[in-house]
Design brief:
By secondary structure, the chain is an alpha+beta fold. The protein has two helices and five strands; from the N terminus they run ββααβββ.
């Protein structure tokens, strides 16, 4: 059994977004990369966007015109946590923080720390979310 066989349970599938390799095949994502792409997919999907799964996605898209203040950032953190807990069962969400990007008032940086349940590997990513401040 080689090292990759021990991680097969993490999954192999199409890369997100879909890409084609130089050989004309669909590019694949493997293992931890697959989980990271699943997190991006969940956060990038607005609730109601998928006809057959109307509850799938994250509620942050309803905040597009919200002011960039502490209340909005708290709601973003709550919505991200709820979406990841509900739709990504392969991870434990450890920490989520949303902060304004320096020099860009309309950009929130959502920092997510997580642990992969099957092998206790730690992961983190930063998801950029653009808001336009309301008046």
């Amino acid at each position: 059994m080689n090292g990759d066989d021990k991680r097969d349970f993490l999954g192999v599938g199409w890369k997100f977004p879909v890409q084609v390799t130089a050989g004309g095949k669909i590019a694949q994502a493997r293992y931890e990369q697959r989980i990271e792409e699943a997190i991006y997919l969940i956060l990038s999907t607005a609730k109601g966007e998928r006809v057959m799964l109307p509850d799938f996605g994250c509620g942050i898209h309803e905040l597009v015109f919200a002011p960039n203040n502490s209340m909005t950032r708290s709601i973003v953190v709550q919505n991200v946590r709820e979406a990841l807990v509900k739709y990504e069962p392969r991870i434990d969400v450890l920490d989520i923080a949303a902060e304004s990007a320096p020099e860009q008032a309309n950009l929130l940086l959502i920092r997510i720390g997580y642990r992969i349940r099957a092998n206790n590997a730690l992961g983190n990513l930063v998801y950029p979310f653009y808001i336009t401040e309301g008046t």
